[in-house]
């Protein structure tokens, strides 16, 4: 009877588009998407870096009310929520703590969210990466039997942690960045689909004490441009046509512990085989410190940088200098002697005037 009642309840809920927002501090809410489409964006301005002490939106996406939200945690587990189960709240409110909606295990932290309309889609995959450089690809259908207590998404060794998960079509490029300043870019097709209980395969050969800090699934600009310009080059340094160079818009922003950062075109990272050492992503020294995060950005992106002392700094990506891989970057913010960068995230704007 409970299942029948649940089905009847869902049938009574309109399957409308909802805007889902998740804050850096772990608060989640949903708001009708058409509410945002009729709001004025307002003047964001270009006033340089701005310090904030408040929470901010780190994840934002549109999903229908009947869609699933998959919540992946540091312990390699995944939990489910239906969009209509999320608290509905106005733009000015932050919603509810995710921990009040899902019973995480002790010391378990949310590391990634994936939205999916249909968990039975055969051509969709979830690609995961761990701190030790292990990667794994599982068919989305592996997660089609929700349990309130969550299930294993990847089996982890020892103290390893899941650091990221992305929904893909199985044909993306995978980008991993390490704490010591290395990065690797390889084809997703190098990783075969595995069952939930599998532990994955080696994605990056890390030096002793090094670990992965960021993972992304990207669509390289140079693959798109190669078709348009009938070229096969995969390395920006080999390009002589300025028109082609100007078309390369995907940039990887790397932020280091001591407040330094730089943007590097994705095309400067040559494609290598899975499991290699990769290439230099940032030259790490006593001046700039180790890498905290590498994020995919565009000219329009804004980035939030969080310090260990609790400061949140907003930086416009287009104000950060473009530089090659083997550089230290430029100073993005000045830190107190006892402070350092703890995390960085691309800021997601809640107003969507463009979609009117």
Task: Provide structural commentary.
It is a single chain. With 356 residues, the chain is mainly beta. It has one domain (2-40, 52-219, 250-355): Neuraminidase (6 Propeller), CATH 2.120.10.90. The protein is built from 4 helices and 24 strands. The chain has helices spanning 2-11, 33-37, 221-229, 242-247; strands at residues 17-23, 27-32, 50-52, 57-64, 68-73, 77-82, 96-97, 110-116, 125-130, 134-139, 151-152, 162-168, 173-178, 182-187, 201-202, 212-218, 251-256, 260-265, 279-280, 291-297, 302-307, 312-316, 330-331, 341-346. It is globular, with a radius of gyration of 21 Å. Residues 36-53 and 351-356 have low confidence and may be disordered.
Q: What's the shape?
A: globular
The largest β sheet comes out as: 4 strands, antiparallel
Portion of residues in beta strands equals 35-45%
- Here the CATH topology equals Neuraminidase
The oligomeric status of these chains comes to: single chain
Q: Could you tell me the number of beta strands?
A: 24
Order of strands across the main sheet: 4-1-2-7
- Which value, in Å, is the CA radius of gyration? 21 Å
Q: Tell me, what is the CATH class?
A: Mainly Beta
Mean pLDDT: 83
Structural class: mainly beta
- Whole-number tally of structural domains: 1
Low-confidence stretches: 36-53, 351-356
Notable traits:
single chain, 356 residues, mainly beta, Neuraminidase, four-stranded antiparallel β-sheet, 4 helices, 24 strands, 8% helix, disordered C terminus
């Amino acid at each position: 009877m409970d299942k029948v009642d649940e089905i009847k309840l869902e049938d009574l809920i309109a399957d409308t588009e909802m805007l889902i927002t998740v804050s850096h501090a772990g608060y989640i809410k949903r708001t009708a998407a058409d509410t945002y489409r009729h709001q004025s964006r307002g003047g964001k301005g270009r006033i340089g870096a701005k310090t904030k002490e408040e929470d901010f939106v780190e994840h934002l996406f549109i999903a229908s009310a009947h869609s699933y939200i998959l919540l992946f945690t540091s312990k390699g587990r995944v939990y489910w929520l239906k969009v209509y189960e999320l608290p509905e709240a106005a733009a000015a409110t932050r919603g509810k703590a995710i921990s009040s909606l899902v019973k995480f295990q002790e010391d378990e932290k949310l590391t990634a969210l994936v939205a999916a309309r249909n968990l039975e889609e055969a051509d969709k995959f979830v690609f995961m990466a761990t701190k030790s450089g292990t990667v794994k690809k599982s068919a989305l259908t592996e997660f089609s039997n929700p349990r309130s207590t969550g299930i294993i998404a990847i089996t982890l060794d020892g103290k390893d942690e899941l650091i990221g998960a992305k929904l893909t079509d199985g044909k993306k490029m995978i980008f991993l960045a390490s704490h010591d300043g290395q990065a690797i870019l390889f084809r997703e097709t190098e990783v075969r689909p595995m069952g939930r209980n599998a532990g994955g395969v080696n994605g990056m050969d890390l030096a002793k004490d090094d670990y992965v800090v960021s993972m992304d699934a990207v669509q390289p600009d140079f693959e798109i441009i190669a078709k348009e310009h009938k070229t096969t080059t995969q390395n920006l340094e080999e390009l002589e046509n300025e028109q082609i160079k100007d078309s390369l818009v995907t940039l990887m922003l790397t932020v280091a512990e001591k407040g330094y950062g730089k943007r590097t075109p994705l095309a400067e990272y040559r494609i290598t085989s899975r499991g290699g050492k990769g290439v230099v992503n940032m030259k790490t020294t006593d001046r700039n410190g180790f890498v905290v995060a590498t994020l995919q950005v565009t000219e329009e992106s804004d980035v939030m940088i969080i310090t260990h002392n609790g400061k949140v700094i907003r930086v416009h990506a287009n104000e950060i200098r473009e530089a090659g891989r083997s550089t230290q970057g430029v100073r993005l913010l000045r830190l107190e002697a006892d402070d350092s960068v703890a995390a960085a995230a691309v800021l997601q704007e809640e107003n969507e005037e463009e979609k009117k």
